[in-house]
């Protein structure tokens, strides 16, 4: 026993740690000291013997005797319970990691300094404020310029190429719209009838005008009714309603833009229509970004403001007065009325598209156009405006 006592003293002097009890040495149960608590994963570990309790204190008051070390005096503690606050554990010696066994030796023990130098958690960087414009502005401008250049080139070379641009845009928009309905609302648009019938509406509007477009639309709806029959009654009305809406909203409205091309002054009519819509959108965008404070329809489109609508009115009226008088030899007052009507229909189209997307729970109809979304997201204000443009220009400027 004297030899064991000397070895224990040498051990304490050399390392500052209490060694594990040698075989045959009385444990805590034999000496009256409470046993060290055992943690999961530390079975068989050479735990440091607990410090004898002072009479009158409970076995759980160890933290009170050594507040800095916490529960280190109670033996091995799991690594998960270590926090940067245990820096004072240096006085208790090295703290064994959870799951450490007697076979791992002293090399596996954490130093007190290492425990105290736990990495500090850096505060999360402040989230960047979303752009007030709500879009990638450089990408949106670049895509807009490319689309505008393609339209101008088609009009100034062979103006009937513009009908082809309309046909492609309507086909892509139909794919986008049908895809969103299928993914989000489990609604199936009759794709083949709507695509084929949509192209018929646009191309028949060239030689036959609105009679050709309306005839193709009616035949498209009949084809949708027949196409959906084999799939049974479940969801029949839902799918037919979506197919009819898609056929009217996209190709039928687009056919009115195609009907602006055939007259001899078709280039002027198309430019008057497009410049009016672009001026309305641009004026509203600038006014809304710079001074928009009063939401116009917060439950539908929170970013659309009355100040932006005022900017749209200014842009649309100025564009209408200039284009209709300079390109089509119309009167200024006709241009003013045309501009107001375009602003109203363009705004209505934008709100309708926003309401559709809000109902479906999507931000954009597609991702084809960087900074804009999909084709459908660019057609929203153009489609209803094409109908009003054809009606008003046919009334104000006799067909040549």
Structural features, described:
- The structure is a single chain.
- With 400 residues, the chain is mainly α.
- Among the domains are: 156-262; 264-400, no CATH class.
- It is built from 13 helices and 2 strands.
- A two-stranded antiparallel sheet has the order 1-2.
- Helix 6 (161-185) runs antiparallel to helix 8 (236-258), helix 7 runs antiparallel to helix 8 (236-258) and helix 11 runs antiparallel to helix 13.
- The chain is globular and about 55 Å long.
- The relative contact order is 0.08.
- The model is unreliable at 1-116 and 123-131 (pLDDT under 50).
What's the short story on this structure?
The protein has helices at residues 2-15, 28-31, 62-65, 112-116, 137-157, 161-185, 191-228, 236-258, 266-291, 306-326, 332-360, 375-379, 382-396; strands at residues 295-297, 301-305. By secondary structure, it is mainly α. Among the domains are: 156-262; 264-400, no CATH class.
């Amino acid at each position: 026993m004297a030899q064991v006592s000397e070895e224990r003293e040498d051990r304490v002097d050399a390392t500052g740690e209490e060694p594990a009890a040698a075989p045959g040495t009385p444990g805590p149960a034999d000496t009256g000291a409470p046993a060290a608590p055992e943690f999961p994963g530390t079975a068989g570990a050479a735990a440091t013997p607990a410090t004898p309790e002072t009479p009158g204190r409970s076995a759980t008051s160890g933290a009170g005797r050594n507040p800095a070390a916490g529960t280190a005096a109670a033996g091995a503690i799991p690594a998960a319970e270590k926090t940067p606050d245990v820096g004072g554990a240096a006085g208790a010696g090295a703290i064994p990691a959870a799951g450490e066994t007697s076979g791992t030796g002293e090399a596996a023990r954490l130093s007190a300094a290492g425990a105290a130098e736990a990495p500090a958690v850096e505060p999360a960087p402040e989230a960047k404020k979303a752009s007030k414009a709500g879009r990638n502005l450089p990408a949106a401008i670049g895509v807009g310029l490319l689309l505008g250049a393609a339209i101008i080139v088609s009009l100034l070379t062979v103006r009937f190429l513009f009908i082809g641009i309309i046909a492609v845009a309507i086909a892509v928009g139909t794919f986008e719209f049908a895809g969103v309905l299928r993914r989000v609302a489990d609604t199936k648009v009759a794709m083949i009838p709507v695509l084929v019938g949509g192209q018929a509406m646009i191309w028949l509007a060239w030689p036959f005008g609105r009679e050709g477009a309306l005839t193709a639309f009616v035949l498209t709806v009949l084809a949708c009714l027949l196409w959906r029959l084999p799939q049974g009654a479940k969801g029949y009305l839902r799918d037919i309603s979506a197919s009819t809406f898609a056929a009217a909203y996209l190709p039928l409205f687009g056919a009115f833009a195609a009907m602006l091309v055939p007259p001899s002054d078709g280039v002027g009519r198309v430019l008057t229509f497009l410049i009016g819509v672009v001026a309305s959108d641009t004026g509203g965008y600038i006014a809304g970004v710079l001074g928009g404070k009063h939401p116009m329809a917060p439950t539908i489109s929170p970013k659309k403001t009355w100040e932006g609508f005022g900017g749209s009115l200014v842009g649309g009226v100025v564009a209408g007065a200039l284009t209709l008088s300079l390109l089509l030899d119309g009167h200024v007052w006709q241009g003013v009325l045309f501009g107001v009507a375009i602003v109203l229909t363009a705004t209505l189209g934008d709100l309708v598209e926003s309401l559709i997307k809000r109902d479906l729970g999507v931000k954009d109809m597609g991702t084809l156009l960087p900074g804009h979304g999909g084709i459908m997201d660019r057609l929203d204000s153009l489609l209803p405006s094409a109908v009003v443009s054809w009606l008003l220009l046919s009334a104000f400027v006799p067909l040549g």
